[in-house]
Design brief:
The protein starts with a helix and ends with a helix. The protein is mainly alpha-helical. The longest helix is centred in the middle third of the chain and has 32 residues, at 78-109. It has helices spanning 2-8, 25-41, 43-65, 78-109, 112-117, 123-152, 164-184, 191-201, 216-224, 226-239, 245-272. The protein is 72% helix and 0% strand. The protein has one domain.
Length: 274
């Protein structure tokens, strides 16, 4: 019985080269479920932001600025163009804040990470659960905002629901990048620089205007940012304008997301254990 118990609860060896290979999915689910139970206690307040924010953004950008723009943008009405931007911006931002301030509070102020690691859960599983939870919240928000876009006419094609797929990878990418940053942050005020960089760089990713209108140098930088691909693919689903290039954008997004996840898992282990 003792041998069987040890086998059933064995964890992957730490000698494995990749941190992702040390992730135990059962432990990930246990931590994810813990976050879900906390979320369900506060779900009403948690859903206020994803409902209010896109409504006002659609009013401000789609109908406000849109009324000043007579022509279409990238071949689609500006309301549809900016509607996709509103969706992507809100969803990606939710994943970012979940693995910055929220994860930092759980790690430092609430000592939730310490409590979890006092169980057989390994750091890699804890870190991956943080990424999974941030992505889950982003997915929930994406469905809510999609409903808002359909109501306001910013999305009309049935393919719009598939925009959740690239947004999931985009949310996972920014969650992994942000968790890696969190693992290195020693003071909560240090986030000011990271958040400022994010809100500055996001303007280059095609949220509010097409990347093609940028000067060539900035255009190359924009396409090097994985979030640009996530936004471009999501907009293509929402406007029914899919093209062959979107397959390459998706592969690039998925690869960079995995690389950032590996970095995040390694960084959190150094912060919590070493």
């Amino acid at each position: 019985m003792g041998i069987t118990s040890e086998i059933n609860h064995a964890r992957p060896s730490r000698t494995l080269p990749l941190a992702l290979t040390r992730v135990n999915l059962a432990d990930v689910f246990a931590v994810w479920r813990r976050h879900l139970e906390v979320y369900l206690r506060l779900w009403k307040m948690q859903l206020v932001a994803p409902l209010i924010e896109p409504v006002f953004m659609v009013f401000a950008f789609g109908w406000g600025i849109g009324s000043l723009i007579a022509s279409t943008v990238a071949g689609v009405p500006y309301l549809a163009f900016v509607g996709a931007g509103v969706l992507c911006f809100a969803v990606i931002s939710r994943a970012l804040f979940e693995t910055t301030y929220s994860s930092y509070f759980r790690m430092v102020y609430q000592s939730t990470f310490d409590a979890i690691l006092a169980t057989p859960v390994e750091v890699e599983s804890l870190a991956f659960a943080e990424l999974a939870w941030a992505t889950t919240k982003a997915i929930v928000d994406s469905f809510i905002i999609l409903a808002v876009l359909y109501v306001f006419g910013a999305a009309t094609t049935p393919l719009g629901i598939l925009a959740v797929i690239p947004l999931t990878f985009g949310a996972f990418f920014i969650a992994a990048l942000s968790l890696g940053v969190t693992a290195h942050v020693r003071d909560i005020d240090s986030y000011n620089l990271y958040i400022a960089l994010f809100f500055s760089v996001i303007f280059l990713c095609g949220v509010w205007f097409p990347v093609d209108v940028l000067p060539p140098a900035f255009r190359y930088i924009s396409w090097a940012i994985p979030l640009t691909g996530a936004i471009d693919i999501s907009r293509a689903f929402l406007t029914n304008t899919l093209a062959p290039r979107h397959a390459l954008e998706f592969l690039y997004l998925a690869l960079t997301a995995l690389l950032c996840a590996e970095w995040a898992l390694r960084s959190l282990r150094r912060r919590m254990v070493v």
